[in-house]
What does this fold into?
Amino acid sequence: MKEIIKLIVKYHFTIIFVLLEIVAFSLMVMHNNYQRTIFSGYTYSFFGSISSTVTEIRDYFYLKETNEKLVAENVELRNIIEKARVLQMESTSDSLWHPVDSVDCKYVYITAEMLNAGFNKTKNYITINKGSLHGIASEMAVCSSEGVVGVVEKTSKHFSKILPLINVNLRVSAKIKKNGYYGSLQWDGDDYRYTYLNDIPFHVDAEVGDTIVTSGLSPIFPEGEIIGFIESVNKETANFLTIKVKLATDFKKISDVYIIANTRKQEQEQLEANGDE
It folds into this structure.
């Protein structure tokens, strides 16, 4: 209490000045319509700005939570579908009953969160919060609830580095969904919203709005994962079309992803390697 009194005594001129300023301002606003209108306008604008900011922050965390739930549900559903698919295939080949937990699925889906990313370069990257301890390895596919994100480049125990579709070093085998013609998808290093599908023969029917998906011709991606939609088709080249694709994944908004592990990838690659001997 003594300390408070000492402070008041020490700064009493300043305190009196501030109080008089508040009183003067209050009287001016109360008895002057013009000043009151101006003050009210600034007040509404100030608090309106705060309210808008608070709303944006709340919406951000709500959307992030919603996206996390969506990705988790998507992964759970995909794992169930994959087990059901394998069980159906096995039931046509023999009459033995297999427990669901023992089903040898080709693809396993793992959820992860994005920790860091660089999207302002030609060699962009993404870091996620899962690594080798969680069953993740290099050359595994990465997707979001919107579509394909990229491929795992390398891992540590707890983290993984992803090469996204918007990295000039990444090529993905993709096809036009409606007719199955496939080519090589590669980013040109320009706009993060678009990429290009190359090596599609000139005579192929490709129209604006057509869906582009993974071809399934590599052991990394399952067939049919959405990549994007045709934005434009250039037919000026002699033998092949130049197809501009608008990516389904918005790389400025993604936060949650899932990794697709092909449990038979190594077996396939070993067989193909032995075939070259």
